[in-house]
Amino acid sequence: MNLVENIKEGLKSIKANLLRTVLTALIVTLGITSLVGILTAIDGIQYSVTDSLSELGVNTFDIYSKRNRGGRSGGIQEKSQPPLKLKEAMRFIDNYDFSTSVSLNTSITGVAEVKYESKKTNPNVWINGANEEYIALEGLNIEKGRNFSIIENQYGTNVAIIGVDVKESIFDDNVDPLGKEISLLGNKYRIIGILEERGQIGGGGGPDNSVIIPILNASRLSSNRVLRYSMTVGINDPSQMEMAMGEATALMRKIRQDKLGEPNSFEIAKSESLADRLEQVTSVMRLGGFGIGFITLLGASIALMNIMLVSVTERTREVGVRKALGATPLRIRQQFIIEAIVVCLLGGIAGVILGIAIGNLISKVIGIDGFVVPWLWVIVGLVVCIVVGLISGYYPANKAAKLDPIESLRFE
């Protein structure tokens, strides 16, 4: 009896016990579906975000005021550094020659109240000042309207871009906010744009509950309070990040008049990219997917082993006949292992197809376009099926291979 005959006999046995085979394969299908489905959805999300980042085409670093802790180091009082000023930031933007885009922003208050006619928000709205580059470099989108123009920023015009929570608080559904005047911090501002909803874990602040006004206009609302300005520099070529940061550091030291040998009077640091954050999240999600799939496949392997043990008992006489005709223990063992692997592969193929379909459906439901086929996870899923079949089938197959041919022929 050669290997081809073993495969044929295994398929005949599966066909003879079709219902039992289908039920066993279904358990494997569920495990592979959960594994491939979750990983397909994760790959779809990651592909979409990565594609968006590649369209944006930038990596960023931040320049902001040094945090003054006021402590002592080695018995020496830490020097308190003045915050980054608006004129210093503007000088940096005007003189930084590297091929980049630079956003400038400051936070005025987080407890503002915004009014429109007789309606007003809760006193928890963030008022931020920013230039025209801020929206893009912060990964925000304008759902309706437009961004600030260069002229509006240069002259500090009373215009504003509002978040979706602010819009819903003071405008009825049938009212178009664009062009309307709102009141905040004792001044009137004309709405020119509405930010796309971003959402915030835990609710509360974020872009949705904020109003953005031109940076120069924001500086006039400080009420003699010192504002803390920060800049985000976007680099088109990530390979030039270190060079760009070096030039930015040298220029800022010159602007801030930092003496040779003294530490920087400002902070400069590479931003944690969205891709890095996404990778951290997806890694955890992948582990969860593997965990769910592993538990389901563990149940499937136990069920399969039990069914194979029953099959060995039912076919004891058949094993005796095969041994009497010259079948070796190796061939008997092969036959039962092949049956187990075939059952797992049938379930695995069905699970892969369902997993890809469900994973892409989940991606579609959460608003991600495109169809993803995770070939790596498809191959991994099928290899896992073979391993499960091998492990589950080996003990029953070994038991069948050790049966005594004489005793087996007497079995009823």
From TrEMBL:
Coiled-coil annotated spans: none
GO CC, one annotated term: plasma membrane
Domain MacB-like periplasmic core residue range list: 21-250
TM stretches of this protein: 21-42, 287-312, 336-362, 374-395
Any Pfam family: FtsX
Keywords in alphabetical order: Cell membrane, Membrane, Transmembrane, Transmembrane helix
Topological relation to the membrane, as annotated: Multi-pass membrane protein
Principal localisation: membrane
InterPro entries, A to Z: ABC3_permease_C, MacB_PCD, Macrolide_Exporter_MacB
Signal peptide limits: none
Protein name: ABC transporter permease
GO molecular function: transmembrane transporter activity
Location of the ABC3 transporter permease C-terminal domain: 292-405
Localization per record: Cell membrane
